[in-house]
Amino acid sequence: MSESANPAADAAEDEEASADATTVAPANGAAAVVAALESADVETAFGVQGGAIMPVYDALYSSSIEHVTMAHEQGAAHAADAYGVVTGTPGVCLATSGPGATNLVTGIADASMDSDAMLALTGQVPSHMVGSDAFQETDTTGVTAPITKHNYFASDSKTVGDVVGEAFALAEVGRPGPTLVDLPKDVSFGETDRAPKLPEAPARSKPDPEADAEEVEAAASVIERAEKPLCLFGGGVVKGDATDEARAFAREHGIPVVTTMPGIGSFPEDDDLCLSWAGMHGTGYANMAISHTDCLIAVGTRFDDRLTGGVDTFAPGADVVHVDIDPAEISKNVHADYPVVGDAGTVLEQLEVAMERSPDAKEWCEQCTAWREEYPMDYAVDADEPVKPQFVVEAFDAATGDDAIVTTGVGQHQMWAAQYWTFTEPRTFVSSHGLGTMGYGLPGAIGARLAADDDREIVCFDGDGSFLMTIQELSVAVRENLDITVVVLNNEYIGMVRQWQDAFFEGRHMASEYDWMPEFDKLAEAFGARGFRIDSYDEVADVVGEALAYDGPSVVDAHIDPRENVYPMVSSGGANGEFALTEDQL
Amino acid sequence: MAGPRPDERPQPTARRNAQGIRIDPDAEAEPAQRTAVISALVDHEPGVLSRVSGLFSRRQFNIESLTVGPTTVEGHARITLVIHETEPGIDQAKKQLGKLKPVIALGELGDNAVRSELVLLKVRGDEPDKVHAITEMYEGRTLDAGPRTITVEITGHERKIDDAVDAFRQFGIIEISRTGQTALERGDSPTTPGEEPGHSAATDDATPNYDD
Ligand SMILES: Cc1ncc(C[n+]2csc(CCOP(=O)(O)OP(=O)(O)O)c2C)c(N)n1
């Protein structure tokens, strides 16, 4: 977005410049950086200005790339991450050196944990000052080495465009992840007349999508023989665009499906075969199925401990077939009896060809259905009592289409959103899974909004604590008039912490009571957004309708039952099948 | 919510061990650790060593030694790592290492591989003849001999180095510096898969040819 007061003149200038970009070679390193982004078809980038990144911004001035100025670099990183999740191509974020770069760190780490493709560009002090503790110097490649797929220190204006193109391509090839290019100011300013090469990942970083035929045969035959087969679809199914193949495979062979939380949307939750997601706050029936399966067909999951509980009790009777594009995930947390290294969609098709018959799983399917009836997901609605958060989630779900996108912060509200929204499409649940970053929701919604078609609803479920962490991004949503609805499930607690204190710290609410929360509806109005408030059940329907109908950012401050806790719950390190349904079962 | 309480639900009795491997409860054994020598051919670029060592510390791999140096191919370096881990740990270390972008190829060396280490030892100079004799015994070299100290260099297999260090203890070791192991596969077998031992030097004039 240009900051100029004359948008019409800007548009004309933009058009001219983009026509030029293809014919005229870049003048300096920064222009080469932008040319590389353009040839990677980057349409939107998120960032904050600053000294060391200024040359790049100057080059963006005459580019067709839409730049969205965020209020904080953490917001830029989360927005880029969510943008990438929704579009399926790497999101791009920019920051200056030092504090700009360190503010990106949480968002980069978040993308890394969730295998989200993202490219971060950071300014750096001029090369001759690197290492001197210069003003706003941080060892950015050092700081981000453990949380990036790879990072680059650009050292030459002539090749910096190639490096940026490679970093972009590397972010999305194979198992996706964030990459970073650190750009010293002299490299950005340095002259070059070389147009960057087309973005391409290094050959040795491109994994073979096809799995070894013997591995596939072995997996196919153990699946055929299984009596209690279970599909476990992880984030890799969504990120690898393998949902069609995954759905076809499970349906063809009548195998029940559980997903991980990042795998939400890989299989429609309203399908009879779907047991929803497993793990700490997953459904009782998904966790019972995990505990009792004799053949777990795990695709694109890294067996996070929030899914497995204690590995000793995870699917203890199962032959584990583990399909993953990243060989390092095989047998990292849970031993794979049948490892299959390859792209999720390709491998599922290979398995399909290799399988001669379906497993005989009729009884097992009946058992899964019985568990579904035995441990239903429900909650009590009492008109005289404070509103239950689950009710609010369901009300928004009912009022929006299948392709609506949900983003969240981290805490109880995230779990309720995941539990009580019925997801049917991939890339519609955009959340911070592996890192669990409070504050992801609002910038995530901004990124998702800019990535998605205008007619799709974007609903952010946030906690009061999480919302406060990145609330400043509301100013961006207002400036850009982004049609998003933030629903703060306000319990005046950092509720998930309170829940653990009740369960494991004898109810001592040390630092978890947030009864000093602002009135979010009024705060929204102060930012220039629409504000709504819910205090009772009879207000829900109207507010849901009005907030969704409003064409711009709105914030619903939903005052929910502050005592409500998230169940079912598998205690950390516990057995999946031993989930608690109430606190006294913990 | 309905449904029986956790303790009333049917639960499987099977178990996995800490590595996630299904176990027979009667035959559960602690996985044994072993020493593995891993050779990685990497792009010789700034930061590669810190990426490798950072990976190892971040993932808590038990690293014994790490050596690095250029090869005959310009732009390539070889990192030799010795780790002491369980079988799944070694497997994981190799896979994680293989994911690093600057890693070109890597392999684990067999027992048969040539391995060597260098140690510098500074001992008291009170008994120069005896020090000399021990140095000779271990085919070492005297690098510095003064009235108060003698510094020697010994190279060879890790066990030989250990023995030599033991033997020098009688003189009082003042300082010691060990490089850690470096290793190559024997004969025609490449040290890392796909590597063509030595050939590059002969075809590329820009790289020094050590046979000259
Ligand atoms: C940045 C960050 N700091 C701390 C935590 C630890 N934490 C996990 S959940 C949680 C409570 C979240 O509270 P809130 O956003 O109000 O959501 P609620 O649980 O009440 O729905 C906290 C503090 C975290 N996940 N992220």
From TrEMBL, chain A:
Statement: the UniProt record of this protein carries the keyword Transmembrane helix: no
Annotated pathway: Amino-acid biosynthesis; L-valine biosynthesis; L-valine from pyruvate: step 1/4; Amino-acid biosynthesis; L-isoleucine biosynthesis; L-isoleucine from 2-oxobutanoate: step 1/4
Catalytic activity field: 2 pyruvate + H(+) = (2S)-2-acetolactate + CO2
Cellular-component GO terms for this entry: acetolactate synthase complex
Entry's EC annotation: 2.2.1.6
Thiamine pyrophosphate enzyme central domain boundaries: 216-351
Cofactor(s) listed in the protein's UniProt record: thiamine diphosphate; Mg(2+)
PANTHER family found in the cross-reference section: ACETOLACTATE SYNTHASE CATALYTIC SUBUNIT, MITOCHONDRIAL (PTHR18968:SF13), THIAMINE PYROPHOSPHATE ENZYMES (PTHR18968)
Cross-referenced NCBIfam families: acolac_lg (TIGR00118)
Name of this protein: Acetolactate synthase
Source organism (scientific name): Halorarum halophilum
UniProtKB/TrEMBL annotation, chain B:
Main EC class the enzyme belongs to: transferase
GO terms for cellular component: cytosol
Keywords: Amino-acid biosynthesis, Branched-chain amino acid biosynthesis, Transferase
Residue runs in coiled coils: none
BP GO terms, sorted: isoleucine biosynthetic process; L-valine biosynthetic process
Region (Disordered): 1-29, 179-212
GO molecular function terms noted in the UniProt entry: acetolactate synthase activity; acetolactate synthase regulator activity
Residue intervals of the ACT domain: 37-116
This protein's pathway: Amino-acid biosynthesis; L-valine biosynthesis; L-valine from pyruvate: step 1/4; Amino-acid biosynthesis; L-isoleucine biosynthesis; L-isoleucine from 2-oxobutanoate: step 1/4
Bias (Basic and acidic residues) ranges: 1-10
CDD domains per record: ACT_AHAS
UniProt superkingdom: Archaea
Entry's EC annotation: 2.2.1.6
SUPFAM superfamilies noted in UniProt: ACT-like
One Pfam match: ALS_ss_C
Family, per entry: Belongs to the acetolactate synthase small subunit family.
Protein name: Acetolactate synthase small subunit
The species this protein was found in: Halorarum halophilum
Lineage of source species: Archaea, Methanobacteriati, Methanobacteriota, Stenosarchaea group, Halobacteria
